[in-house]
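BUG: 3D viewer hangs when loading the predicted structure for this chain

Environment: internal workstation, default settings.
Expected: structure renders.
Actual: progress bar stalls at 90%.

Input used:
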Amino acid sequence: MTTTADDDGTTGGNITVVGHADLTPDTLLLVESALRTRLARRPAPAVTVVRAGAGTPLASGRAARASGCPLAVVIPRHLEGLAMPPRRHRTASGELLTLADEVRLLAYDPVDRDSCVGADERLVASGDLLLAVWDGSPSSGRDATAHLVTYARTRGVPVEVVWPPGAGREVPPAVRAEG
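Structure tokens produced before the viewer hung:
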């Protein structure tokens, strides 16, 4: 595994993958399969880039590995060194690191939503293609996937939306309690 410290993303050949964080367990399997198919049919294996975390990043990392694409996992760093991911992402981040061909360090705070969105914007801007695991819903206070799709399109980065038939998102606790 190669480790690099590169705050501007990297050079071309990158496929950045972003998506909803609240996918159902069945949807994660559907997404992993759909991504594996898309990545396997690419003419030359491009580097698949994900920010460390559970859900879409882990499904993307597994798909990249299964399709033979190199995987770059982006982990946060602070001025003092590496930053720990939030507890709910630690196991998935650990698995991603074992799958990774390359680890990239990027300055952002993994517990600050705006900092994470900024990191994703830098990854999107440095990529040649964005694969967005997105149901087409608008951005919300919790989810920035629609924002990242718009961000990519305004910068001329091609976008492919991945939303397999039967995919769904977890129902937020407040909605579950009401209905």
